[in-house]
Amino acid sequence: MNFNEYPIDSLMYITNRPEIVFTHGKGSWIYDSNGKRYLDFIQGWAVNSLGHCNDGMIEALNQQAGLLINPSPAFYNEPMAKLAGLLTRHSCFDKVFFANSGAEANEGAIKLARKWGRKFKDGAFEIITFDHSFHGRTLATMSASGKPGWDTIYAPQVPGFPKADLNDIASVERLINAKTVAVMLEPIQGEGGVIPATREFMQQLRELTKKHNILLIVDEVQSGCGRAGTLFAYQLSGIEPDIMTLGKGIGGGVPLAALLSKAEIAVFEAGDQGGTYNGNPLMTAVGYSVISQLTAPGFLEGVRSRGDYLRTKLLELSEERGFKGERGEGLLRALLLGKDIGNQIVEKARDMQPDGVLLNAARPNLLRFMPALNVTTAEIDQMLAMLRSVLDSL
Ligand SMILES: *Cc1c(COP(=O)(O)O)cnc(C)c1O
Question: What single-letter DSSP state applies at residue 366?
Fold first, then answer.
């Protein structure tokens, strides 16, 4: 097949995309229309938690497609209830609302916190967020994000999101006032360059928010669902947040997201929150398959051991090439290059022959690794061998 056969000009321009059309994938490999294969360490942007076209997910999708696709969000359905039960059983939360994207789940978290503030805190509405954070692309979640430049692209912003510095509790404390209703953070900043909040900082935040009677919201759209080696990244710090959002990995590649809260925080009244596709059986059936596989005995231990393996190998590579080390949790890791060669590496790795490798430079001076959680150590070795040959060619 020829690239010119595809009417790509009909697609609205939003970003520079390489001249490749992907047609199919299996596990850690994805194939383009010319039959070239790529070892995939992006996996749909940390989305395909079980790799491409996982058998359990295919079965769940096929089976549900023949049973019931959408009865309307005004009714209960079986997969929606089963998945909610699975999530509450495996977390510290009691209530779940399903959404279609991470941004939509975060919008829900912001609304829930503001509603709680209206009810119990004299109309408090400000949510303290962090520099370099990423919470999505709706107007409110862009305003909540600390991404440079995002305060002006679609100005004016949604007000009420003062910014603190990650891992600096004094910077959070300074922003707290009578209007503050919550603090919201990613336990590991993903788009910001894989920067973990320290265990100490998470504990200080929990203590500070309790003291001031404000909510602690964790955006686990990227860090959740096994990515950090525990089912949820907040579990690494031994605290219990009030609200959590999930996206990306929960659907294993299909559009599914969730907003979870403690029972006493779930203060929506009839009509306050909704959405046509919320909890639709087709997507929640897939989510149920994904979370069941992630919570199967031994699975998360495997993620932790492969995460340790990747960490050790990245440190070796860093030492060998004079880079600046690595950081991350589980299978969300970054190699710190110390210079702005990330994008060059990404392009060369993709264009390698005969096989390519898909990598991501979340920032120009680092590479971010977000493979399938069931990636093998052999595939990790293969990725590293390919990366070494790209580095040799620079
Ligand atoms: C990707 C991401 C989002 C946005 O999710 P979408 O599904 O793209 O709306 C929000 N928060 C974090 C931490 C993310 O990584």
Answer: E
How many domains is the chain partitioned into structurally?
Answer: 2
CA of 102 to the centre of ligand 1 (A): 4
To which residue do tokens 């919570």 refer? 295
Q: Quick check: 89 pLDDT over 60? A: yes
Q: From the CA of 141, give the closest atom in ligand 1.
A: 10
Q: For residue 168, with 0-12 CB atoms within 10 Å meaning exposed, 13-18 middle and 19 or more buried, which class applies?
A: middle
* CB contact set of 242 (below 8 Å; sequence gap of 6+): 182, 209, 215, 216, 217, 261, 262, 265
| 1: confidence class by pLDDT, cuts 50, 70, 90 | very low
Atom of ligand 1 nearest to the CA of 138: 9
User: Is ligand 1 within 6 A of the CB of residue 219?
Assistant: yes
Mutate to test the pocket of ligand 1, among 248, 256, 332, 368 (most ligand atoms within 8 A of CB): 248
DSSP 8-state class, residue 124: -
- Together in a domain, 175 and 189: yes
Query: Are residues 377 and 366 both part of a single domain?
Result: yes
Q: Which of 265, 294, 323 is the last residue of a domain?
A: 294
Query: Which residue is closest in CA terms to ligand 1's atom 5?
Result: 102
For residue range 48-75, list pLDDT tens digits in order.
999 999 999 999 999 999 999 999 999 9
pLDDT in tens, 288-324: 999 999 999 999 999 999 999 999 999 999 999 999 9
Residues 164-184 pLDDT 10s: 999 999 999 999 999 999 999
Residues 309 and 285 placed together within one structural domain of the fold: no
Does residue 67 sit in the same domain as residue 43? no
Q: Is 130 in contact with 195 (CB distance < 8 Å)?
A: no
Residues 224 and 372 in one domain: no
Does the pTM exceed 0.85? yes
Quote the domain boundaries for residue 67.
55-294
